[in-house]
């Protein structure tokens, strides 16, 4: 349906980084209840891998403020530059999450409003990547769509690709890679309509 838009995600976020940063600055931390549920599964000061970290504001900033070391990964060098300026003591990496191989594990893995920009097959291939970077009992939290399909949003006036697998397939992929679903809410009205998955390695 939207192969051109899907292929252009990295370039779009690089070119429109400032648009995203300015827009995100006005939304506040509406994700806080989910971040607190995520943190409840982590050891104190457990390290977190933030895939698609954006500018680190406000989600990574909240976690850093609570004492969690953050390794942030984003394909946009402009976003990572903003992270490094704001939080120079954390680790920020320009990389494509689809090919990530850090050879270390984390207590928590976050892929909030990032993983869902991947096409269906790339999403399927991400679950072994999650598993490879998950320490014992690690928490994994990501957002998806409510059902299998593709959708086009907008960023800086340009088309922004999203995709989702069927919920049953997400459950299967999580199970195949050793994760159990802790909580799932479809289009959470208290979180801006996000469909959220929280899972834990067993």
TrEMBL record:
InterPro entries: Methyltransf_25 (IPR041698), SAM-dependent_MTases_sf (IPR029063). GO terms for biological process: methylation. Keywords: Methyltransferase, Transferase. Residues 48-128 form the Methyltransferase domain. CDD domains: AdoMet_MTases. The keyword Methyltransferase applies. Gene3D superfamilies: Vaccinia Virus protein VP39. GO terms for molecular function: methyltransferase activity. It comes from the Bacteria. This is Methyltransferase.
